[in-house]
Write a structure and sequence with these properties.
The chain has 560 residues and is mainly beta. A hairpin with a 2-residue loop joins strand 45 (425-433) and strand 46 (436-437).
C-alpha cells in the first residue's frame, strides 16, 4: 500500500511539474504566451513574443534575456515579475547629450601605440555651432560634420576628451570607436557605455515594453531599453536601469527605488510620478545633466470656486515658478496648470536635491457690495475646491407701526436685517409692493459677518386697499449668478397694511374758506343789484300818480 501510494504521489507531482514547465522559456517566432503558474527563466534566452503573467502567478528571471523590438511583458493584478538577472532590448537607441563642461573618460587597453578616436554624432552638427573637441594638445572642429576623428594614444593610457560647445540645441554622440592598425578588433562604445561626466544620456525610443499592473521586483538586476509602466507596486533595489526611463508611476500606485543607478531617459526626468502616486527614492543616482531624478506631474490643476468672475492671482506655480492673473469661468472653475511645467509640483533634481513649488493663490471677487478675497497655498492635487468667503444678507422681517394707514401719508416700519455669512458687505435694500417698486426712504447699511441690525424706514402708498411691504437686497450684476448663496432673494415682508382715503386732507379748510368767500361776495353783488332796481321802480310810481291826477275831469271822461 505504501509503495502504491508513493508511486501515485510521484506521478501527481511529476504531472504538476510538467504543467508548470510548459512555458519555462520565453516565447519565440512572435508567439504570445500566458504564464498561469510560477515559472523561472535561467541562462541566456531570447524573447520574441509577448508574455502575460496571470493573476496568482510569478515569473522569475535569473538569467540574461534579450527581447526583440516592440514586444512586451504584462503583469496582471495579483501577479508578480521578479528580475534577478538581465533583461535587455536588442535595439538600444542611446545618445549622449554634451555640454560645455562634459568630459569623456576612456581607456581601450593596449591596442596599439596610437590610433584614431572616432566620435559619431546623432545628426550633422550645424555649421553655425561652436564645437571643438580636445584630447591633450590636439583640437578638432566638429562644426558641419556628422563624425570627427582625433589622434589619441591606444597603449593603455587614459584618454580625457574635453569639449568647447556653443549652440542653441543639444549636440549628441551615439557611439565612439577606437580605430587602430593593431591585430585586435575595433572597440565600439554605444552612448550608454561611455564613461562620462556632465553629459546626459537620452533614448529616442524604447526597445520593448513592461506594463506592471501587479507587482514588480528588481533586485541586483539590469534592465536595458524598457518602456516601464508601474500601475501596481514596484520595488527596485541595488539595480541598474539603462535606457529604461522615464518610469511612469500611475496615480494610486507606488514605486520604491533604493541604491540604484538609472541612466538614460527619453524625457527630461528619470521617473514621472503621476498625481498622488507614492515614491520612495533613496541612495540612488539618476541620469544627471539636464535630467531630473524624478518629478511629480499632475494630470490637471483644476480649482473649483464658489463664483464666476473671480480674479485669480497665481504666483510661484510649477517647475518654472510662473505668475499669472486669470478669471474663473461661468462654472466658477479655473485651470492653473495649462502647461506641463505648471503641473510639476515637486521634484528631485539632477543633483539629488528635493524641491517643491512655493505657490500661492489670491482669489478676489469685486462687487458693489465690496471686495471678497482669500489667499492660500496652491493645492498640489489634480482637483481642489477653494471658496471665497462671502456674506449672506437676510431681510428677516418688517414690523410696521400700525395695521392701517392713510393714502399719501407715511407710515413707519422697522426692517430687521442680518449677515450670517463670512464677509462684511455694504448693501442697498429696496422695497416693493408685489413686483412694483414703492416709495420708501432709502436703506443702505454695512453688516459685518455675524452682525444684525434694525433699520427704520418710512413708507408712502398712493392707492388704497390692503398692501404688504416686501424689502430685498439689491444684487449687483456680478453677483447675480450666485444670488441664492449670498441673500434670501425673496426678502422679508411686513404684516398687511390697510390703506384708506381720508375724509379730509390738510388742504380742505382752505377750500372751504374760498367757497365761503365766493358765496359771500356773490351774495353781496346780488343784493346790491336788487336794491338798485327797487329805487328805480319807486320813481316811476310817483310819475304815474301825477299823470292820474292831471287827467282827472277830462272831457273824454265817460262820466261826463
Amino acid at each position: 500500500m505504501r509503495t502504491a501510494l508513493s508511486l501515485t504521489l510521484l506521478l501527481i507531482f511529476t504531472s504538476l511539474a510538467g504543467i508548470a514547465s510548459v512555458h519555462a522559456a520565453p516565447p519565440s517566432d512572435g508567439q504570445n504566451i500566458s504564464i498561469a503558474a510560477d515559472e523561472t527563466w535561467t541562462g541566456d534566452q531570447e524573447m520574441n513574443g509577448n508574455v502575460v503573467v496571470k493573476s496568482g502567478s510569478t515569473l522569475t528571471i535569473e538569467g540574461d534575456v534579450t527581447v526583440g523590438p516592440n514586444y512586451q511583458f504584462e503583469v496582471e493584478p495579483g501577479a508578480s515579475l521578479v528580475l534577478l538577472g538581465t533583461v535587455a532590448g536588442d535595439s538600444i537607441n542611446s545618445a549622449l547629450s554634451l555640454t560645455n563642461t562634459s568630459q569623456l573618460h576612456l581607456n581601450f587597453g593596449d591596442l596599439a601605440e596610437s590610433g584614431q578616436l572616432l566620435l559619431v554624432f546623432a545628426e550633422t552638427v550645424s555649421d553655425s555651432a561652436m564645437m571643438n573637441i580636445t584630447v591633450g594638445d590636439k583640437t578638432v572642429d566638429a562644426a558641419g560634420k556628422d563624425s570627427v576623428s582625433i589622434e589619441v594614444p591606444l597603449d593603455g593610457s587614459d584618454i580625457l576628451v574635453d569639449f568647447y560647445i556653443y549652440h542653441a540645441y543639444p549636440i549628441q554622440i551615439t557611439s565612439i570607436q577606437a580605430l587602430h592598425t593593431g591585430s585586435g578588433a575595433i572597440p565600439t562604445l554605444d552612448a550608454h557605455q561611455i564613461n562620462q561626466t556632465n553629459g546626459s544620456l537620452t533614448w529616442s525610443n524604447a526597445s520593448f515594453g513592461m506594463n506592471i499592473f501587479g507587482n514588480l521586483v528588481l533586485e541586483g538586476a539590469e534592465l536595458y531599453g524598457a518602456d516601464l509602466l508601474c500601475s501596481g507596486t514596484c520595488s527596485i533595489e541595488s539595480s541598474r536601469l539603462v535606457g529604461s526611463a522615464p518610469i511612469h508611476v500611475e496615480n494610486g500606485t507606488s514605486l520604491s527605488v533604493n541604491s540604484t543607478m538609472i541612466q538614460g531617459s527619453r524625457t527630461d526626468e528619470d521617473i514621472i510620478v503621476h498625481d498622488l502616486a507614492d515614491i520612495t527614492y533613496t541612495n540612488s543616482q539618476g541620469t544627471g545633466g539636464t535630467t531630473d531624478a524624478w518629478v511629480r506631474l499632475l494630470s490637471q490643476r483644476i480649482i473649483q470656486t464658489n463664483s464666476p468672475s473671480i480674479t485669480v492671482h497665481q504666483s510661484g506655480i510649477g517647475y518654472g515658478s510662473s505668475t499669472r492673473d486669470d478669471f474663473t469661468d461661468s462654472n466658477g472653475q479655473i485651470d492653473i496648470g495649462g502647461s506641463e511645467w505648471k503641473r510639476i509640483v515637486e521634484w528631485v533634481d539632477q543633483n539629488g536635491e528635493y524641491h517643491t513649488e512655493d505657490a500661492e493663490l489670491t482669489l478676489t471677487l469685486s462687487s458693489g457690495w465690496g471686495d471678497f478675497n482669500i489667499t492660500t497655498t496652491a493645492p498640489r492635487v489634480p482637483f481642489a475646491v477653494i471658496d471665497v468667503p462671502l456674506p449672506y444678507i437676510e431681510v428677516v422681517s418688517i414690523d410696521a407701526e400700525d395695521t392701517t394707514a392713510e393714502v399719501n401719508k407715511k407710515i413707519g416700519a422697522m426692517v430687521h436685517v442680518r449677515n450670517t455669512g463670512a464677509a462684511t458687505a455694504t448693501v442697498n435694500i429696496w422695497c416693493y409692493v408685489g413686483e412694483n417698486l414703492t416709495s420708501t426712504t432709502s436703506l443702505t447699511t454695512t453688516l459685518e459677518a455675524g452682525e444684525e441690525k434694525d433699520l427704520p424706514v418710512s413708507w408712502w402708498a398712493n392707492t388704497d386697499g390692503p398692501q404688504v411691504l416686501n424689502c430685498r437686497t439689491l444684487i449687483p450684476d456680478i453677483l447675480k449668478p450666485i444670488s441664492q448663496d449670498i441673500t434670501n432673494v425673496e426678502g422679508g415682508n411686513s404684516q398687511e397694511i390697510g390703506w384708506f382715503v381720508g375724509e379730509e386732507t390738510e388742504d380742505q379748510p382752505w377750500i372751504v374758506y374760498a367757497i365761503l368767500a365766493v358765496v359771500i361776495i356773490g351774495g353781496s353783488i346780488m343784493f346790491s343789484m336788487r336794491s338798485s332796481k327797487s329805487e328805480e321802480y319807486g320813481e316811476n310810481d310817483e310819475y304815474v300818480t301825477s299823470i292820474d291826477s292831471t287827467t282827472a275831469g277830462s272831457p273824454w271822461d265817460e262820466s261826463e
